[in-house]
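Worked Example 4.2. Consider the chain below.
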Amino acid sequence: MIISFDILFRVRLRHSFYADGAARHLMVLPTAETLRLIDNNKLLFRITESGFLVAAESVDAGPAGSDTSGSNTTDGDATDNGATGADNGQRTERKLRRALPDGARFRFHLVSTSTRFSSITNLPLTDDEPGAMLLGNRNGSTDDEALLLHPSQFAGMESNSFAILKDNALKYTVSDQTIPGTATVRTAQGRVLLTQTTDPQDDTLYFSFDMTGFPSDFYTLWFGNKAINTWYHAAERYPGMLLAVVEIDPGSGAAVTHRMFDGQQIMKQPEYEIRFQNRSTFWRYHIRNRSGVNLNNPVILAAPYSFSKKNDDELPEDALLFESEQAIPLQEAGISNISLRRQTGAATHLVLDTLPNPGTRFAEPDPVDHNKLYSDIFITL
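Applying the procedure from the previous section yields the following structure tokens:
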């Protein structure tokens, strides 16, 4: 018997910072539950140059559009797209050799292995602890790179309550309490997993839950009969920052256009793409004219971006400061058409061509607007 493996689904990781569009500094790791799903159903998980894929045993389902109810052959060579060519050149479809169990879902942790990834990626800027994005193919999914944000430090809670998850310890406090209170940790479906009742100390209730041994999943913290918040608990520990949870639903929970197979188990072999946007910053050129170059009416030209000269009484006499009027995306290839010029009427005269682009590792937040970043470039003439 020849067993053929065909791609069940593929995920490509893309990043607009790089010239070739491929993401870097990322590690893809299946959760323990997903590894069991793969092993129990004789699936294959493979890292590829552009991301990762999962393949499954398949059989020939006959020519496309034919009645496949009687097909039971295991012949046919697997191809990259799963379609096997018959002798007459007609495309044949592939069918799962064994159906996946009801409720099955694939979950992968996307781990950033370098601080460079954070510096070049348009991730949220916050004073809170870093969170993990949820990316998936379920109904309601969009093309946004971050469908949901689940920070490890709880947000949006009542002013007198606070909870934080450190490693496997979930700690929760509620102030202004004079009687005993009960908190619970529940599954996303509402099943109670942990319960704790405590007496107030100095009008404050203190709760502590040990999440050791609980699988990677979504959990909800309740106080009394009220749901406080939901968070994602990553049971596995990796040498890097958990950036995203990739959740692939093979069944009816997935958006119709993103499903892996139809009701007859015919493989649709969807390709998902996770696109990370490069970070944009406001560029500041600090120029010292130590050589006495003629810089009357200096301007920086960098179409389609524009720069304005900043007047600062604290600058030395030989110093100039220019700031971009728009946020400029950081990119591997850089921008080459940035020049320092001297303007005379309608004409400009070149002073310095191809001004350098900023480095990607250091960006300074605005003291008022923390979502605004500055990249500084220092030039001496």
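Residues 32-40 form the longest helix (9 residues). The mean pLDDT is 81. Compare this with Example 4.1 before moving on.
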